[in-house]
Amino acid sequence: MFGFEIIDASLLPAMLIALFAGLISFASPCVLPIVPPYLAYMSGTTLADLNAGKNRALIPALFFVLGLSTVFLIMGFAASMLGQAILQWQDWLNTIAGILVMIFGAHFVGVYRIGFLDREARLDAGDQGGSSFGAYLLGLAFAFGWTPCIGPQLSAILTLAANEASLARGTLLLAVYAAGLGIPFLLVAAFLPRMGGLMGWMKRHMEQIEKVMGLLLWTIGLMMLTGGFSAMSSWLLDTFPALQNIG
Description:
By secondary structure, the protein is mainly α. It is built from eleven helices and no strands.
């Protein structure tokens, strides 16, 4: 009744996809390259000092993640409310959303390019570098301003949220997506001097990462069209009977 028992086997596939979509969003071309400079700005220090381990960016990064999570949770709640309001047209909504997500996926695979998805819409959080409040504002601005780049992944998860049976389940999916995007920020903030090699590898393989992102989105869209999430839930229950005790 109050939404406490919201996780069950039928939600697990969507949660896994939301988590992976968040990770892929972090690795996208307009997010990954700006992570170290953002951490330096939020900490009120220089990138050289961060790389040398002279300053820590973990607390500002935490407030940054709280800021972007605030926006994503509101989006998830709104998408769930919309889905319930137009429940009678949900089959049509699911079909249209599935087709759009597949189109976005083909863009990232490289079948064709959609111009607005290659542009960034950045918002300025003001001269608040070096403060936790400024980091929180920057997180809010990030969530609003980078949607042209992370929009396809975010749209897919919002569509899944709109198709959920309750506001709590839909909002939870966006919380998982925010975790997938935010946890890497925290890890980089905590271990930046040690992660230079990994960050460099990801930048060098950005094209391959984009293709993985595209294949994921295309697969999500196909599952929306064909009822694949229900089939995956049934497979999970048959393969792992203990999941029936969840929720």
